[in-house]
Amino acid sequence: MRVHPARAAPPLDPEALIAPHQLWGHLSRSQQQYVRKVLGSVAQQWLAHLPSQPPPAEEATDALRSPSEPSENHPTPS
């Protein structure tokens, strides 16, 4: 498919390119929220198409738990 020259994107300047982790800081808060929403939707669709597997054992669940979530074996200090 040919693109009309007036609509073609300008050639990329190698000096102007930024890495994905640098791009995040240039997005507005609403753009960041939109990206999170889209990535969440993609992840849900991807997980829905995975073959079903038995749930992980309790030990594996504890190992995968984020540090901000207290578990019964590792209560947060008071």
List the helices and strands and how they pair.
Blueprint (H helix, E strand, L loop, with lengths): L19 H7 L2 H20 L9 H7 L14
Overall geometry comes to elongated
> What is the makeup of the main sheet?
none
Helix content: 40-55%
Secondary structure class reads: mainly alpha
The whole-number mean of residue pLDDT values reads 76
Features:
78 residues, mainly alpha, 44% helix
Care to describe what's here?
The model has no long low-confidence stretch (mean pLDDT 76). The chain has helices at residues 20-26, 29-48, 58-64. Helices cover 44% and strands 0% of the residues. With 78 residues, it is mainly alpha-helical. It is built from 3 helices and no strands.
In short:
The chain has 78 residues and is mainly alpha-helical.
